[in-house]
Every structure is written in C-alpha cells, then in structure tokens.
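[Meeting: bench + compute handoff]

Bench side (C.D.) handed over the final construct sequence. Compute side (W.E.) agreed to return the predicted structure before the next meeting so the bench team could plan truncations. Sequence as handed over:
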Amino acid sequence: MSAVEEKLASLGLTLPEVVPPLAAYQPAVQSGVYVYTAGQLPMVDGSLPVTGKVGAEVTPEEAKDLARICALNALAAVKSVAGDLDRIARVVKVVGFVASAPDFTGQPAVINGTSELLGEVLGDKGVHARSAVGVAVLPLDAPVEVEIQVELSHA
C-alpha cells in the first residue's frame, strides 16, 4: 500500500475502483510528467448517491461531501495510469463544476470539498490552482463534477 493510500486509510477512506467512462473517453491520460483526469462524478459503487441542483434539491454541505467523493475518484483515475499515488509530485490544477440553482453562488465552498481532501491526503503536494464553475446541468443530473491535473515525479 502506498503512503498516500495509508493516509487515506488513516482518514477512514479507501481508494475506490476507477469509475468506468460514460462515453468515448478515458478516465485519465498521461502526457509526459502530467496526468489529466476526465471529469469525475461522485459515483459510489456505480451510482450517484444524490442528484439535482445545488441550492435547490441538494444542500451546499451535501455537495461539498460529494466533491470529496469526486476527489477520491480522481485519485483512483490518476493511479490507473501512474501506477502509484506516491508518484504525485503535486496537484497542479483542479476544475470543479457545480450544477447550480439559478441563484446559487457558493460554488467555491462546494469545491473546497475536493481541495481540502487533496490537502489532507497529500499535504503541500495537494496545494493547487483551481476554478469553480456553476453550470446548468451535469451528466446523470450529478450535482458536482471535478477534474484534476497532477505532475508526477520521474520515478
């Protein structure tokens, strides 16, 4: 077990299986020392625990928890191409999409679920640039979708 996965375990979390693609794409690809994930939905055991718009059917607190699940799924996608999460030199960028009710403006607080999890698990290597964007709808009526870009060590 990698040090990153040991840290996840110490937080009571386990790395899930990679979420299978919903269409014609790969969950993650490596280019040079970078791994780019596809958008990761908060899938748990093959389904979404909650659907709907944040600020309407889904509370911001629920959505923040879903963003943590997205981060776990993104780490699983990274591992699928990098082989070992201990190869992560740093998380470079996080992009979070929040399916938002028309008057909801708390997208950054929702995507903090992803950012905080990456910080808890990776420490300084988890510090990243980020965008948090409100959108009308996401695949499968998911409330949140997250993609990450990581730089790998050369090892």
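W.E. noted at the follow-up: The chain has a mean pLDDT of 96. C.D. will use this when planning the next construct.
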